[in-house]
Write a structure and sequence with these properties.
By secondary structure, this protein is α/β, with parallel strands linked by helices. It contains six helices and 15 strands. The protein folds into two domains: about 230 residues, Alpha-Beta Horseshoe (Leucine-rich repeat, LRR (right-handed beta-alpha superhelix)), CATH 3.80.10; about 45 residues. The longest helix has about 45 residues. The termini are far apart.
Length: about 290
């Protein structure tokens, strides 16, 4: 079924308390649009019953839906996505859409500085570098590749058929993403540029694993990651603790020597006072009468 036609009848809810149990819905209160192709239903006019369907074709968010702030589109057969009228997006999660081959929907996104969370794993994007991400300077979470949670028989079959995100090149386009705190490039061919990553990002939040594609070039960064000396918070904390311990040991050692020397000097002064210093006899002052 054409997704553009299907979305006209999407369930509308008012807030999480009412829409928490629904997957395919438009939450008008929280401005969240969630679409899951595997759970999509439509009302068959001939039977009057809701039946499963495959969502396909082009999708453009318009009218009320262009107010969306959180967009989630999973497991559909859409071929094109148009978000050119969505000026409030803060999160985009578009995953496991095997017929989606172009990232142009991100190039045409207005107000890219508002986007904080971008997750576009397990699609079929054509070979491209990460230059398209330069505009998203306030990104905090960026997931581009596979990952352990995508290791399924279905995804392995997709990779076998050359269906995966074909990102390649360097991490250099991310050098101005100063807010980035989580990055996943697993199963991609991104193979260089660790030195350009945000130094405030904790090292454990950078993933370059090989889960679905044993020959993925990102595996080269695994070796580099083990050698690289990152200025991450974790490393800084470890270094700070080591410096504190080292300074404490040095201070304790220094205090020990100075303390011993001080005790020896005090002992010598006491001995000198009692053994060598003569007592001086002080005559009392005469009474006033004798001074006349």
């Amino acid at each position: 079924m054409e997704i553009q036609e299907w979305i006209k009848n999407i369930k509308i809810v008012e807030g999480k308390e009412n829409g928490g149990g629904y997957t395919n819905c438009w939450d008008k209160k929280n401005l969240t649009l969630e679409i899951n192709g595997k759970l999509a239903l439509y009302s068959n006019p001939s039977t009057g019953k809701k039946e499963e369907t495959i969502l396909e074709g082009n999708l453009k968010l318009e009218e009320e839906l262009n107010r969306v702030e959180v967009l989630i589109i999973d497991e559909t057969n859409i071929t094109e996505l148009d978000l050119s009228e969505c000026s409030n997006l803060e999160q985009i999660t578009v995953e496991q859409n095997p017929l989606l081959t172009s990232i142009d929907f991100l190039n045409r996104l207005p107000n890219p500085e508002k986007l904080k969370h971008l997750e576009i794993r397990s699609n079929n994007f054509a070979a491209t570098t990460l230059d398209f991400l330069k505009r998203f300077v306030n990104l905090e979470i960026l997931r581009l590749g596979g990952g352990a949670d995508t290791l399924t028989i279905e995804n392995l079959e997709m990779v076998k058929n050359q269906v995966y995100n074909k990102f390649y090149g360097s991490l250099e386009p991310l050098k101005n993403l100063k807010e980035l705190r989580e990055l996943d490039i697993s199963d991609t061919d991104i193979d260089s540029g660790l030195e350009y990553l945000n130094r405030e990002m904790e090292w454990r939040n950078f993933s370059c694993g090989v889960w679905l594609r044993p020959d993925a070039k990102c595996r080269e960064l695994q070796v580099e990651k083990s050698k690289y000396e990152p200025s991450s918070k974790i490393v800084l904390r470890v270094r700070q603790k080591r410096v504190i311990r080292s300074q404490t040991r040095k201070s304790t050692k220094a205090f020990g020597w100075f303390g011993l020397l001080g005790i020896v000097l005090i002992g010598l002064l006491v001995a000198y006072h009692f053994l060598f210093k003569k007592k001086v006899k002080v005559n009392p002052l005469p009474p006033k009468s004798r001074l006349k």
